[in-house]
Amino acid sequence: MISPRGTTELHELVLPAMANHHGTLFAGEGLQRMAKAAFLAARSLAQCEVVMAGVTGIDFTSPVPVGHRLTLRAWVSRVGRSSMTVCVTGLADAPGVPCEEVFKGVFDMVAVNGHGRPQAIDPRYLNQKTRS
């Protein structure tokens, strides 16, 4: 199945190596996976390399025990000339355990050229409200 441009969905199994001393997903591991999902969603829309410029509004709402499946969903919610805002949610479930949102965050990503400088995103994807 192919995801629409600017979206991605990743699945992970929470393993003991990803856990803290409480036996739940270490927040740093969750943040790393959110950043990966944001990167993939932004790059799929921009069709070029991207870098992270900022992170806002990270919320960890529930612990994720070892053995749970983690689903990360990311989508580009705003497109500027070279920047994008990417929203990421994390859902967790296990056999016999209902799916629950466990974290969410907002990432600012920038399309870059081969020298790491901001690069314009194809105008078909520009948000008319953000054009300058």
What does this structure look like?
It is a single chain. The chain is an alpha+beta fold and 132 residues long. Helix content is 15%, strand content 42%. The protein has one helix and five strands, in the order βαββββ. Strand 4 and strand 5 form a beta hairpin. The protein is elongated and about 45 Å long. The protein starts with 6 loop residues before the first strand and ends in a 21-residue tail after the last strand. The C terminus is likely disordered. InterPro entries: Cytosol_ACT, HOTDOG_ACOT, HotDog_dom_sf, Thioestr_dom.
Short description:
By secondary structure, this protein is an alpha+beta fold.
What Rg, in angstroms, do the CA atoms define?
Answer: 16 Å
- How many strands appear in the DSSP assignment? 5
Query: Major sheet, described briefly?
Result: 5 strands, antiparallel
What is the distance, rounded to the nearest whole angstrom, between the alpha carbons of the first and last residues?
Answer: 36 Å
Shape: elongated
The largest beta-sheet arranges its strands as: 1-3-4-5-2
User: What share of the residues does DSSP label as strand, in percent?
Assistant: 35-45%
Helix percentage range: 10-25%
InterPro entries: Cytosol_ACT, HOTDOG_ACOT, HotDog_dom_sf, Thioestr_dom
Protein name: Acyl-CoA thioesterase
GO molecular function: fatty acyl-CoA hydrolase activity
Family: Belongs to the acyl coenzyme A hydrolase family.
What features would you highlight for this structure?
fatty acyl-CoA hydrolase activity; 42% strand; Thioestr_dom; alpha+beta; Cytosol_ACT; elongated; 5-stranded antiparallel β-sheet; 15% helix; Acyl-CoA thioesterase; HOTDOG_ACOT; 1 helix; 132 residues; disordered C terminus
